[in-house]
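ugh ok fine here u go
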Amino acid sequence: MTKVIGRSSVIFLMAALMTVVGTAAYVFWPLPSTDDMRAYFSSHRDALERANASTLRQIAEGKSPATSGNAEAGYLSVRVAGWPKPSRVEYKTHTWGFGFATVGTGIAYVLAPPDKSYPTLEAARGEPNKGDSFRGLVPLGGNWYAMYWQLD
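structure:
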């Protein structure tokens, strides 16, 4: 006689497996540190400047900028915060998780000074999240910031 596994058992097993895989990924492939993101920015700055100039031009023309990644600049996706009157352009470079439990790092071009910035990404990661999403910005120079982001 064959025993059928119940729906709740399958859901529990999937949740347990995703927890184990997520923890292993975080332990063995952690998000980049502040120093890693400074080095990333330094090595990709020219490509980021070109991509950002194009994005800012599209915003100035009233067009919604492309959101896809750019291999030359090394980012996975673009998000314009506050569209149609943007406050920053976010270039997401590293992502962990899925759905509402996603975290990552990136580079942000900030159009207006942020309310708060952090000395390091590690300090931003330690900040309790007080909303649906969180952005921790670390100054890199000029309008450029390293960014830690989290969705809850």
